[in-house]
Amino acid sequence: MLKRHRYSYGIFWLIAIFLVPLPFLQTLSNGLPIIYQSEFRAIYYGIIAYTWMLFAIYLSTKPKWLDRLVGLPEMYMVHGMLSIAAIVLAYLHKSGTVSTGWIKTTGDWAFDLFLGLMIYSLIFMAGWLTNRVPLLKKIKRSLEKFFKHELSIWIHRLNIVAVVLVFIHVQLISYVTAIKPFIYLFDAVSALVLGLYLFSKFVKPLTYEQGMLISNRTVADNVQELTIRLPRSSHIKLLAGDYVFMAFPDSSGLKEMHPFSIANTPDENREIVLLIRGDGDFTRKLADVPLESRVNIDGGYGRYQAFLNDQPSDVNIVILAGGIGVTPLLSTIADNLNRNMTIFYTAHRQDDLLYLDKFDQWQQRDNINGTIQVGRFNDDQVLNNLPKDWTKNTVFLIGGPSSMMHHWNRFLKKHGAGNGQIYFEEFSW
Ligand SMILES: Cc1cc2nc3c(=O)[nH]c(=O)nc-3n(C[C@H](O)[C@H](O)[C@H](O)COP(=O)(O)OP(=O)(O)OC[C@H]3O[C@@H](n4cnc5c(N)ncnc54)[C@H](O)[C@@H]3O)c2cc1C
């Protein structure tokens, strides 16, 4: 039966909010001296805030197993929202407790640092938010010339310093360190998360696979097609529609890993095809990268195919693709050619439509229905061409500009689609 709801995402939220702080609260509440009773609630706020921060840091390590379950974009959203909620709780903690000396100083420094970084990150690092709030997006766009993404990443990492300050803050409170089960748990989990974070930043990069650039051609105005050959020993497991993180370690300005979707089916030739639009410093330099350059690859990430695999194999697939957002869907279509599919593909200009020859071939098939046009589809055009009884037998894969994806998401839900019937991955987090 068609899955109309996405339970995994809801369960993930519940675990993050309730289950993660629970052992800490349990062990702490068993040992807090009664003379601090008036501060108990504020103390609990502080510990919940800290555990949420630790969880947010863990999510920033991009755990692959969680990506396949809930998706990295959703994980980044939880990462952002939990951090904001943690700062609110940290404020309640600060205003509901009394402290002096270094206990107060470390707590205040941590709070001020968190707050400043949160404001900065809400503009520059929270694609899930800026894509929904046009004013924030405008501010981000105008300031991004100075605050480049790489700089923002480094500024964002100062959150670790703030977490370390909180760690010290707790170690200085003698009645808390006296509660042995709590402090052992607190120290062990803090060390574990810090270890995982350091591993992901310093050790994991050493494990990135090294491929080789075997083709680099311009396929449309400002769109580069890169083909990368993976090493024979490659352990990378790719599904259709996945994205990989990619960088050129020998080319200046191209050494930081950036995410790009694969446009081909994960095939036995160990080749990855990427279609990349020149949007900024990194992507505009790609046309000049010489053949046979070494490429670092980490992946695969993404849930387009995992989402399809979760559904019965006889459901219809509707593809809504716009602009460069078609990339993961090209791969998904190519890997699911036997399924009943209705494709809507649009771009701003005729020259921006990619791989039209492939679409021509696909449309020859009886089970594939495609409409390709320049300029956006209107609502009726899509609604009138959906499969019969689509609310009961159809899933939707969307790829395109954020505003387009949210439009179709809202529109389809308004007309009866369930949450679990629609899947899309944003191109910015
Ligand atoms: C899951 C996913 C899949 C993507 N697939 C494609 C694709 O197939 N084709 C394509 O052309 N583009 C794709 N993108 C977008 C691509 O990653 C960005 O356009 C590129 O990283 C921009 O880098 P830049 O330095 O050229 O531009 P900048 O001007 O630095 O950045 C432009 C915007 O891209 C985002 N961005 C920049 N660097 C990163 C980074 N390291 N990680 C995450 N976001 C970043 C930021 O939101 C920024 O506002 C994808 C993005 C995501 C998240």
Automatic annotation (TrEMBL):
Entry GO CC: plasma membrane
Domain FAD-binding FR-type: start-end pairs: 206-307
Single annotated GO MF: ferric-chelate reductase activity
SUPFAM superfamilies documented for this protein: Ferredoxin reductase-like, C-terminal NADP-linked domain, Riboflavin synthase domain-like
GO biological process assignments: reductive iron assimilation
InterPro entries per UniProt: FAD-bd_8, FAD-bd_FR_type, FNR_nucleotide-bd, OxRdtase_FAD/NAD-bd, RBOH/FRE, Riboflavin_synthase-like_b-brl
Record keywords, A-Z: Membrane, Oxidoreductase, Transmembrane, Transmembrane helix
Transmembrane segments annotated in the record for this chain: 12-36, 42-61, 73-93, 113-133, 154-176, 182-199
PANTHER family in UniProt: FERRIC REDUCTION OXIDASE 6-RELATED, NADPH OXIDASE
Protein name according to UniProt: Iron reductase
Species: Candidatus Companilactobacillus pullicola
